[in-house]
Specification:
Elements: H1 2-18, H2 21-28, H3 34-53, H4 62-88, H5 91-98, H6 101-113, H7 119-136, H8 145-168, H9 173-195, H10 205-232, H11 235-242, H12 245-257, H13 263-282
Helix pairs in contact: 1-10, 1-11, 2-10, 3-9, 3-10, 4-8, 4-9, 5-7, 5-8, 5-12, 6-8, 6-11, 7-13, 8-10, 9-10, 11-13
Length: about 290
């Protein structure tokens, strides 16, 4: 139980770090094209991790590289969909659509392994999504193309988290969690050279600050914490905790952008954490344990 709680706390810390990702991702696109930004962000993240943990990479083998490539592929597709979606929808809507990873994860396990989510897990997912909806959705409840692309992002991120749970038990979580970043960077460089006019660096101090947070905070530290968390907890726990990300998006928007938090959003935040608390108190046995 203590190991599961430690995993849940690490996932909550990672989710808090990811909370500013949507904001900085939208801002950095004023200076860099999408693939250009992806290549730089994940290259810097991997370089920083390798500089600190290079001795641990000696344990890496072909299987580590293969599994890191699989994780990196899902991560690249998911992150690309999130960034593109954010261009056509609001940060709050994007946050809600990304929280659907908590819905897709048990659905994928159910389809692939014939394991239905427990009643407690289903209640936790429903309560969490209701809370996120109260925070993010407007009265119209309409979806635009950006929303649909963000839903795709959540779908692919669910696969990334399920595979992370499977592979985190076979490898050093620092190595597998950061090795995937270099593959994302390679994808970014390839598509940048093919589809974008030129490859460039940020031109302002603000741009560099945004890029460094995305690289070192969300890229390096965030994925180390996520991978380590899924070594000690289940993907079911992790995805429901990840669904609380819009709470941190709202808090960062309030602190960084001066956006107001409404009474409805405050109630939504409370409902989200009620859903997360159900999961954390449930213990590891309440979640579906497997991955694809």
């Amino acid at each position: 139980m203590r190991r599961s709680l430690a995993g849940d706390l690490m996932m909550l810390a990672a989710t808090m770090i990811f909370g500013a990702m949507t904001i900085f991702s939208k801002q950095i696109l004023a200076e860099l094209d999408i693939f250009n930004m992806v290549a730089l962000r994940f290259l810097i993240a991997f370089a920083a991790c390798f500089a600190v943990f290079h001795r641990r990479y000696r344990t890496a083998d072909r299987e580590t590289a293969l599994h890191a490539w699989i994780l990196g592929t899902f991560l690249f597709i998911s992150y690309l969909c999130m960034v593109i979606g954010c261009k056509y929808t609001s940060a709050s809507n994007a946050g809600f659509m990304m929280s659907l990873v908590a819905f897709f994860t048990p659905l994928i396990v159910w389809i692939q392994e014939k394991k239905r989510p427990s009643g407690r897990q289903a209640a936790s997912i429903l309560i969490t999504l209701i809370g996120v909806g109260m925070m993010c959705l407007s009265g119209s409840l309409t979806l635009n193309k950006g929303d649909f692309v963000c839903i795709l992002s959540a779908f692919f991120y669910a696969f990334q988290m399920l595979y992370t749970e499977r592979y985190a038990h076979r490898h050093d979580p620092v190595v597998i969690g950061t090795f995937q970043l270099i593959f994302v960077s390679v994808y970014g460089f390839i598509f940048s050279l093919i589809l974008e006019d030129s490859f460039r660096l940020p031109v302002s101090a603000a741009g560099w600050g945004q890029l460094m947070y995305l690289a070192l905070g969300c890229g390096a530290l965030g994925f180390i914490l996520q991978t380590a968390a899924e070594k000690y907890s289940s993907a079911g726990h992790a995805t429901i905790i990840y669904a609380s990300q819009p709470v941190f998006v709202a808090l960062f928007s309030f602190l960084m952008l001066g956006e107001q938090i409404t009474f409805r959003q405050i109630i939504g935040i409370a409902v989200v954490f009620a859903g997360v608390l159900i999961t954390v108190k449930a213990g590891p046995s309440a979640d579906s344990p497997g991955g694809p």
